[in-house]
Amino acid sequence: MRLYHALMATTVALVAVCTTGIDAGGTTTTAARTTTTTTAARTATTATSSSGFCAKPRVRITEVNVGAAVDANEEEAALKVVAISALPSGGSRIAFHSGGNVIVRELDANDKLVASSPAVKVPLHDFGDIHADKNGFVLLGTKPAQGGGTLNCGNPSNMCGSPPNPPVPCYDMYMVRYDGAIQKWATKLTSSSKTLPPYSSGKTGPDVYMIWWYAHHGRIAYDGTNWAAYFGAAISTSEGGCINIHQGDRMKVVSPTGAITNDKDAFDWGCSHSGFERVT
């Protein structure tokens, strides 16, 4: 889980600073530890020197009861994360899987649950990241594809060789915007549809970008106006008269209205077999 990774990196930085006697600005890092009923936000201080930066704790541990069961794991392909994003006010929004939804809760600057801010349930199969602002948040996550056929994938007989047994479902990646508890837009970032299913329209059909059982981690970056989504995806492509499916990465940039922009840095297909897209 990436919040644990952030904790370890911060702890190493603290030790290095205190060993060399260098002063630096403080960082508060929240790490998520989940049980069946709560998520606990935890940080720890390892520095005890009496000089400068090391004189005061800069990383703290806070347990937060989010009022719902938390589903989280460390699986590579079916990763379920707990993600947190800072707010300009000093608080944050934390997102986690629970049942069939992603739930978003607001924390104050002391990592306490803001009771006046209700839980927001977002119907996503899974998600990779959250970006928060004072009015709401953006999530990067998947919804079932609309291709019909076998588990929304279309026709498995288009595929080269034997299709998956048992069958696996197909999804599309979305960026979803909420203002408060109200969804403003949901923008599809992959290309499958009712007329172009994830397994394409035939054995020699056009390429299709979709989400399969391959790893599809993702991150969001924000430039003050637009959001960029970088994520793992699958491509169905005709090779030798049948459909092969490959894993790789993709990036799309979305405007405040939910429109996909023509940003020069966006791309349909980047690194094949990228495997890990958790860095921005």
UniProtKB/TrEMBL annotation:
Superkingdom of the organism of origin: Eukaryota
Q: For this UniProt entry, which residues form the secretion signal?
A: 1-24
Per UniProt, the keywords (alphabetical) are: Signal
Name of this protein: Uncharacterized protein
* Source organism per UniProt: Phytophthora rubi
Query: What high-level taxonomic lineage is stated for the organism?
Result: Eukaryota, Sar, Stramenopiles, Oomycota, Peronosporomycetes
